[in-house]
Design a protein that fits this description.
The protein has 499 residues and is α/β, with parallel strands linked by helices. The chain is 27% helix and 17% strand.
Amino acid sequence: GKRLSPIAENIYFWLRQPRFWGRIAPESSFGVHVDAYEPHLYSSKAIGANWNRFHGPQGYETTYWSTFEPEKGKYNYNDKMIDLYRKYDHALMGVLAHTPQWARVQRSDVKGGWLDQWWQPKDYQEYGNYVTKVVTHNEGRIDAWQIWNEPWGEFWFKDWRPELGYPKQWHHGDSYDEDYLELSKVAYQAAKATGTKAPIVGTHATIGDKGKDWMARMTRLGIEKYQDDGSFHAYIGDTADETLNPEGMFQTRLEDRMMKDWRATTKAEEQDLWVTETQQMRRLADTGMGYHLFNGKTSPLELIRQNADRQGAFQLILFSEGIDKIILYTMIGFDYGHSGQNIDWSCLVMRNGELDPSAAAYSNFTWQLDGRDFAERKTVKPGIEWFLFQPGQHSPDDKMVAVLAPRLDHATAAVPAMEGLTAYDFLGNPLKVGTPLGDTLVYLTFPAGKQKEAEAAFLAATPTPGATPYPSPSEIVQPPKLTLTQQTPSNKVAGTPAP
């Protein structure tokens, strides 16, 4: 017959119940920026993203100075929005930034746009008063605080020099290192004086030469004294080749840009290190919209699979570099951050706001690794990396997980046979013994202390003749019948099924 209307297609994901479903979990290692849109608050928690950072639209409505104290001494307490996030069991990071007009060092008469909110305060004591108020009011509701946003970049101004042109007219000034150190000191001391239990996250560096230079300068100034934890932003994937090329991503490109000696240089070995903005999917987050829309004509299945898998491979590298918590940017969707046909910033969701296949892979990634501690990284076969995680303080069980990360061109390898070992593909489907490795992550779980036996079994394994790397539809375990009455994670019912 003749089709009379455009194809309408809904995509459903079967997800395991997240590790921290039904409660707020600041101990989690995973998060994503998400707007106050209830379907996304629900689905982000459902895929294991337990943290949300109030930056951008969320910051305006919650903890930014410009809206928290728009007039000196007059405070806006947007408790309803924070309560909405808590309703869906999100751990929250507030950002202590965004100078209001009345408090700016310059251009206090100009309302301006996004960039005009990032002027340094003319009186740091006023900033300290704001910190005291916002931290005190939100004690027990905000789980961590971050001092400013990207002070190493275009968000820390002191001088107005229009002759330099856009965007250099917003100028750092000649003492911006010392200025940020003073801001950190004021913020840290004001927050700590409230008795808050929430960690104060500072440093705020980035990868690349700019970040390394900034980190070195701030270290010389003693920045670690004015923070409980450190943080930086790590973006990679400015081109499709960089995003989907493991050879470029796994070592050459990223490791040259990481700050592997962060703890040693700051003498802050006990501090956690956060990546509070990152992703590796830039401009490629919309490749998997379903069978009809992407059936090989527009986007081949291999691209959809690799795209879904790369975010996990990228985060493996971050954990191996000593990162403790990772908050992706951003799940806002709905054409946010899009330029033309490309998606610059969105991740885990498609252009229409629905979950992308990468969200299903992310769900499995968080389910396998949240609560475990990174232990080891090495090459076990040519082109195959082994990332080992061991039970941690918040581990769901006493199992170890070895994540096998194959490059596109790797040695022949297969799922091993070993008592107590279970293998899963990148989406969480169980794999049979002898399944050959493809080009996506494979998870091996086994009893703690048995990593040598598991590695030996893997090295000895050979593919089953005729087997393929990915299970056929008939081999995928079907989901149980789900209850549709559970509306939010805050319905703390024992045995609540996964959404």
